[in-house]
Predict the structure of Periplasmic trehalase.
Amino acid sequence: MFSPRLRRAPALIFTARLALSGLFILSPALAANAPTYGAAPQPPDVLLGPLFDAVQRAKLYPDQKTFADAVAKSDPMKILADYRMQRGQSGFDLRHFVSLNFNLPNTGAKENYVPPKGQTLRAHINGLWPALTRSTGRPGLWDSLLSLPKSYIVPGGRFREVYYWDSYFTMLGLAESQRWNQVQDMVDNFAYEIDRWGHIPNGNRSYYLSRSQPPFFALMVALLASHDPDALKKYLPQLKKEYAYWMAGSETLKAGEAHARVAKLPDGTLLNRYWDERDVPRPESWLDDITTAQNTPNRPAAEVYRDLRAAAASGWDFSSRWMDDPQNLGTLRTTQIVPVDLNALLYQLEKTLAYASRETGDISDAQRYDELADRRRKAIETHLWNSKSGWYADYDIKTQAVRAPLTAAAMFPLYVKLASEERAAKTAAAVRKLLLKPGGIAATCVNSGQQWDAPNGWAPLQWVTVVGLQHYGQRGLAMEVIWRFLTNVQHTYNREQRLVEKYDVSSTGTGGGGEYPLQDGFGWTNGVTLKMLDLLCGEETACDNVPQERPGRTPAASQAMRNPQSATPQSVRSAQPARRPASSASQDATMENISGAVQNPATTP
């Protein structure tokens, strides 16, 4: 069994606890040679205490995120004092009190954007980029929104801020639309956050600072490198800082212990898990979390809250993947699970650090990161491979064994090209048999009612699957996934004139489940759709809608499939859209060189 670390590790860790609320704020302790990061603003549940709790419990707004994003009109301490004085008075109206003291999230022109009728799918997406662009400028003094130096793309709908892992897939579409300035701006914003907070938070809200999300920053930088060859060198300091964040506390960890985002298995193997520094309800889902904890009386509430938050850090919030009982959210044990996708992405980060270090002439660091990547590859092959079933899966810290269920996360070792040919073939066969549905790849095989379960399929998982399959010569299956998912997207667009957050892949339609209504926009679906359109039709015969009949394999399409994405684990090079600028050929050549250095596919487990 694993034991939690009760003593501080001599590395950058988050330790400052506010006695008032039990909040861990991001006030990092200093380790030797570690940078100093700024004190973080307090989230709204801390600023407003009992008032925040009362508003959320009163269900004044259909979406709990509404009040989490509200901005106080004056000092929250004064508002809280007024609330304490008035709440017991006869006739006190909580809704009226809130309206007097807070500005609710804006619903401006961009939020009300109505696209022109009759647009093609491609034109619709290109028209959405300006509508989804935001900038923070200087948020209000008590705003939960965190300032960023440059503009960014939001997912859409209730998501009025930038999100970490969403942004990579959005940026793929920006690059496909030749909007490189926006790609640059978003990379700069994430680099700024790393320098400011020591990591990239879940999103640019104060209540997201206590966790991160799947680490895609290395892939973002590699994407930018297809346009700016110096990008990897330029952002090497931030890449190193992000790696330090994920590995904090690992130096003194003993076998069988776990601390924050690192876990050392009984045999001494070091791997990573998702974590959140706080163990209270999430402000944006306050009452939902309280209800989940109350419905799980056999577990400490703080433990449930931590696991809910860690699941949010994973991006898969929520899924049977984290649960003992797929029908009972209170059984999730996210912090006791070592995720295969997270560790595959950290392998990619280590390989990118090795390449970038070598490019700057730091051979010692390059060798060190290469060794770390090789250790992680071996650890994944040893502990995150289900030999009985024949696919990659998560490791269960509690049972000290690989978990049984197949999920779309199994494709991440193929995505970063660390899998052996034999294991890649077995995983691909399992995905074809169990996850491939009429409308694309399902997140899991389990229908639990959670949004990251069947029958839902998500754009990022389609993309990871397509690229992973292509890496191992499974082009036919990759094209099948593209065709099925794009057909799903097109059918929904034809019917509803929108792209959405997730899709029901059991047929062709919008997905369901989750804590909030289906969101449209939608950043990562837009990005993946543009990439897939050009892979489906090829550069010479670019299509603006999904064809009614599946195109034959033209030479251009075949060439595109050999190089399916910008900044993917196999290649930083992109199959660009038709009518690319002349400079793209030199970008392709540069990225081919990078891909050969960054990726060293394993031939044996």
